[in-house]
Amino acid sequence: MPFPSSDLEKWAAQYACSLLGHALQRHGASPELQKQIRQLEGHLSLGRKLLRLGNSADALESAKRAVHLSDVVLRFCITVSHLNRALYFACDNVLWAGKSGLAPRVDQEKWAQRSFRYYLFSLIMNLSRDAYEIRLLMEQESSACSRRLKGSGGGVPGGSETGGLGGPGTPGGGLPQLALKLRLQVLLLARVLRGHPPLLLDVVRNACDLFIPLDKLGLWRCGPGIVGLCGLLSSILSILTLIYPWLRLKP
């Protein structure tokens, strides 16, 4: 989910304040200091919403471009993600109008819940896209490994894919074989992610972002400390994609 650099800086500062406020509360800081940190966090949040006034249109343009992707799964995940982002930004704009006094009658709680729901749907689509790309890369890597083994005259231990640690008829052979297959899949996953840093960064960033709407919607209460930490980490990773554009997942 790309944002302007100034927005990302405010996002990082906002969640740093959230994390700092949680730490001050746990260590018994003065109520006045805690109040000042909360006020600073609120001002940063309002400023961040102001910088997003044009982001709905950008998200819609991104959705229009994604419709032309050749891969059906990527086309669906990316388009739906951008559409939800557009709705999320639109709700954020309404919230900004309410908090700034332009629309004082806005039900901020209701619009905040709508905003986080669209945010959550967007993240679910992002993670679904990540999972799909990981599966494709794992299949490609597995096929490449098989070709290398055949070319070098090697093979799967035990002579066949279902053999090795014990065939189906061997007592107690099923569990060790399943453990071996699981271990090989984990190693393959690690190899794929290590070889594709943009995908790894996108997975970590989306996973961190996921805690925010889950907490705000009451689906999984993880506390302001975890939300602040995850939000700060996600912001830092997003800033990295601006400094090093090759780390941004495409398309």
UniProtKB/TrEMBL annotation:
<dbReference type="GO" id="GO:0005778">
    <property type="term" value="C:peroxisomal membrane"/>
</dbReference>
<dbReference type="InterPro" id="IPR008733">
    <property type="entry name" value="PEX11"/>
</dbReference>
<keyword id="KW-0962">Peroxisome biogenesis</keyword>
<keyword id="KW-0576">Peroxisome</keyword>
<keyword id="KW-0812">Transmembrane</keyword>
<protein>
    <submittedName>
        <fullName>Peroxisomal biosis factor 11 beta</fullName>
    </submittedName>
</protein>
<keyword id="KW-0472">Membrane</keyword>
<dbReference type="GO" id="GO:0016559">
    <property type="term" value="P:peroxisome fission"/>
</dbReference>
<feature type="compositionally biased region" description="Gly residues">
    <location>
        <begin position="151"/>
        <end position="168"/>
    </location>
</feature>
<feature type="region of interest" description="Disordered">
    <location>
        <begin position="149"/>
        <end position="168"/>
    </location>
</feature>
<feature type="transmembrane region" description="Helical">
    <location>
        <begin position="226"/>
        <end position="247"/>
    </location>
</feature>
<dbReference type="Pfam" id="PF05648">
    <property type="entry name" value="PEX11"/>
</dbReference>
<keyword id="KW-1133">Transmembrane helix</keyword>
